[in-house]
């Protein structure tokens, strides 16, 4: 069964600290892995997209890693800011000949950054 | 990129009634998707809407409950019919201009009383 599991479910950190969110997946056939940020009351916004051959990708203070052998990904947030408070969703795309919409969503990690 | 707007942003409805959610995209796209996000849960795909053809529904979702229209390449509607409290969710419209990118609308937060 195709699944994406994220940990922790929720996390509270102090402003300025770093944190790492985890994502494990059992999805086949794998196309790419995405991290989205979803602010409360808003739709998800893409942070990074990684294909099978990519180990790491950065977007500002966000750095995602991918280990395709162990089927694990992480999202590292550096020098957190209050605006980082959101849910972070790991999404794996299935490779069905380029067809779109074949996404498996994790439940997300709810991050709260406190002053 | 694609900019997506949805109407309404939120609504409170009585059970047994229906609500139609509108999705507008700032560019022409072939495929549009409708998702549901129940409280504390991940996104679940309801259906894929292609212009000029019937929508394709995922397992557990039926056209009578969630009729979809796709009159052109920039617009779609999702109707939640005969609502019950279990339909209280956030409903999101999404587009995928290519196999590598997917954009989401801001969502419609529906509460059924």
- Estimated helix fraction of chain B: under 10%
Q: How does the major sheet of chain B shape up?
A: 7 strands, mixed
Question: What can be said about the biggest beta sheet of chain A?
Answer: 6 strands, mixed
How much strand of chain A? over 45%
Give the SSE string of chain B.
EEEEEEEEEEE
Kindly state the number of beta strands of chain A. Answer: 11
Average per-residue pLDDT of chain B, rounded, comes to 93
Overall pLDDT of chain A: 92
Shape of chain A: globular
Q: List the helices and strands of chain A in order.
A: EEEEEEEEEEE
Describe the model.
- The complex is a heterodimer of chains A (115) and B (113).
- By secondary structure, chain A is mainly beta.
- Helices cover 0% and strands 59% of the residues of chain A.
- Chain A has no helices and 11 strands.
- In chain A, strands 2, 4, 5, 9, 10 and 11 form a 6-stranded mixed β-sheet that branches. Chain A has a 5-stranded antiparallel β-sheet with strand order 1-3-8-7-6, with no helix packed on it.
- Chain A is globular and about 45 Å long.
- The termini of chain A are far apart.
- With 113 residues, chain B is mainly beta.
- Chain B has no helices and 11 strands.
- Chain B has strands spanning 4-7, 10-13, 19-25, 31-37, 43-50, 56-57, 68-72, 75-80, 89-98, 101-104, 108-112.
- In chain B, a hairpin with a 2-residue loop joins strand 9 and strand 10.
- Chain A binds chain B through residues 4, 31-32, 34, 36, 41-46, 49, 89, 93, 98-101, 103, 105-108, and chain B through 4, 31, 33, 40-45, 48, 92, 94, 96, 98-107, 109.
């Amino acid at each position: 069964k195709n699944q994406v599991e994220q940990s922790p479910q929720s996390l509270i950190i102090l402003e300025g600290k770093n944190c790492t969110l985890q994502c494990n997946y059992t999805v086949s056939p794998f196309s790419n892995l995405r991290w989205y940020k979803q602010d409360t009351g808003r739709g998800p916004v893409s942070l990074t997209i990684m294909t099978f051959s990519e180990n790491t990708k950065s977007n500002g203070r966000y750095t995602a890693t991918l280990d395709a052998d162990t089927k694990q990904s992480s999202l590292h947030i550096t020098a957190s800011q209050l605006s980082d408070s959101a849910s972070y969703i790991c999404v794996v795309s299935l490779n069905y000949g380029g067809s779109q919409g074949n996404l498996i969503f994790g439940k997300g990690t709810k991050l709260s950054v406190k002053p | 990129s694609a900019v997506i707007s949805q109407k309404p942003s939120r609504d409170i409805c009585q059970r047994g009634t229906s609500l139609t959610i509108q999705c507008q995209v700032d560019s022409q796209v072939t495929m549009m998707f409708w998702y549901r996000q129940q409280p504390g849960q991940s996104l679940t795909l309801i259906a894929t809407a292609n212009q000029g053809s019937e929508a394709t529904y995922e397992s557990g979702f039926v056209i009578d409950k969630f009729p979809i229209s796709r009159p052109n390449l920039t617009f779609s509607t999702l109707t939640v019919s005969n609502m019950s409290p279990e339909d209280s969710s956030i409903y999101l419209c999404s587009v995928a201009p290519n196999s590598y990118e997917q954009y989401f609308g801001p969502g419609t937060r529906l509460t059924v009383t």
